[in-house]
Amino acid sequence: MLTISGVPSGEGTTLLRRCAPDLTWQDRSPFLGASAAPVIPWLRQARRDHRRETDLQLPASGPAPRGVAVSFAPEDGLGAHSWAAAAGLRLLAADSTAVATAADKITSLALFERAGVATPRTWVVADDIPAGATGSLVVQRRANNLTGKGTRHVTTQEQLAEVLRAWSGETLRVSAHGDGVPVTVSGCVTRQGTVVSALSHQLVGIAELTPYWGAHCGNQLVPDDDLPAGAAARCREVCAAVGNQLAQSGFLGAFGLDVLVTPDSAVVAIEINPRFQTVVSLVQAQERAAGLLPSLGTHVLASLLPSVPVEQVRTRCLRLSQLVVTADRAGVLRAGITSGVHRLARGRLQQGGEGDLAALRSGEALLWAHAHPGDRVQPGEELALLQFPGPVAAVSASPELRAEARQWVRAVRHALVVEDA
Predict the structure, then answer these.
(1) Does residue 54 carry a pLDDT above 80?
(2) What dihedral do alpha carbons 327, 148, 32, 285 form, nearest 10°?
(3) How do 364-369 and 340-345 pair as beta strands?
(4) Residues 196, 95: Cα–Cα separation, whole Å
(5) Which Gene3D superfamilies match (predicted)?
(6) Under a CB-based contact definition with an 8 Å cutoff, are residues 156 and 134 in contact?
(7) With contact defined as beta carbons under 8 Å apart, do 272 and 255 qualify?
(8) Is the pTM higher than 0.90?
(9) Exposed, middle or buried, 289 (CB in 10 Å: 0-12/13-18/19+)?
């Protein structure tokens, strides 16, 4: 069982249809919008990959907004803003200054302090190795969108010195590395408080999936009892406190909070993702099952209304999971795969058509292709997202993928042919 908060589905859908009858989800992939669509059937999907667009400018003028739009990471360049303006849509994105402050690995430390939540022992480093920074350490660049490339784990002074040389000229965050289970708490800041939704076990740096120690590899929803006693409730308290501080800075809408749950039930805040996260796809399936409006809808209501109705629900955990499959070599993608429900047949993908994440059966996975033939890819760059009806690893500090999950990863990489450029 788990405890989540949200907007009651019936009332929320009525409010949403009234204030956002023309609503578009915009991203390179429809996976997140798809998990909300059964409750928001008028939601439109607009596919566009702004990561591959450069030299964009906001139009000097455009049509008056006829509707509203939500994008996965609108702070990542001008792509989503330019697209929405040209389409005559109002992009519901959080205040850019508040987003930048929260996303920054260093400026977010002050926000955590104001929220009264624990963080690892941390040093802000410009050049020299700080006194006391010894043992197992995590070194991070300030940016929050480096997909793991901006995080290093070091255990010796020599390794630390090497990282400082490699990132010379940058101000870095150096933190004591602690033991514990990485957990992501999904929330939404409204004008009257913070809605705290589902908890998920964050899968990070798994060798079969990424060459980077700190890279996000996936998530799996967890019930309260899978964490040490009292830790789940403390995760929700910490998320609410951080969300309320985000509100003080002018932030509204969806966000994710990454924390570490220690063996003694302490909850240590690590970083803020002031935007939608990939795990929200799983979270929305859980919200639907609990009779709550999906997070995408809650984000829209929080952006448009002075208040939203919120209730707390005790419900069964769906135990859904997902893995990010990345390229294991550099090259050009020569063959692609079709998004949809798949099964494995003798280690190969067998397509079964479209499907709903919440309706997956044992032995099935919902696959979303995030790279396509002709794309140039590098090791660690995302190729596809795989979603499962059950957990893919034990809930632990250093999880290992289950055998079936490894088979799925191998099958996806076999189907997605990467050749030398």
Answers:
(1) no
(2) 110
(3) antiparallel
(4) 20
(5) ATP-grasp fold, B domain (3.30.470.20)
(6) no
(7) yes
(8) yes
(9) middle
Structure tokens at 420: 């030398």
* Amino acid present at 148: G
- Contact predicate 251/94, CB 8 Å: yes
Domain boundaries, the chain: 8-93, 121-176, 320-421
Q: Which residue has the tokens 């994440």?
A: 357
Q: What is the CATH number of domain 320-421?
A: 3.90.1170.30
DSSP 129: P
Task: Yes or no: say if 90 and 69 are a contact pair by the CB < 8 Å rule.
Answer: yes
pLDDT in tens, 151-202: 999 999 999 989 989 999 999 999 999 999 999 999 999 999 999 999 999 9
The residue to which tokens 């990471």 are assigned: 73
- Distance from C-alpha of 234 to C-alpha of 267, rounded to nearest angstrom: 7
Contact predicate 42/13, CB 8 Å: no
**Residue 104 pLDDT > 70, yes or no?**
yes
Task: Tell me the β-bridge partners of 182.
Answer: 260
Instruction: Tell me 292's DSSP state.
Output: B
Ramachandran angles phi, psi of 12, nearest 5°: -65, -40
Distance between CA atoms of 371 and 389, rounded to whole angstroms? 23
Burial class (CB in 10 A: 0-12, 13-18, 19+), 5: buried
User: Each residue of 377-405: pLDDT tens digit?
Assistant: 888 889 999 999 999 999 999 999 999 99
Q: Which two tokens stand for residue 418?
A: 């990467």
Span between the terminal Cα atoms of the chain, in Å: 49
Tokens of 29: 């992939």
Q: State the burial class of residue 14 (Cβ atoms within 10 Å of its Cβ: 0-12, 13-18, 19+).
A: exposed
Ordered strands of the 23-27 beta sheet: 44-47, 23-27, 67-71, 89-91
Residues 289-330 pLDDT 10s: 999 999 999 999 999 999 999 999 999 999 999 999 998 889
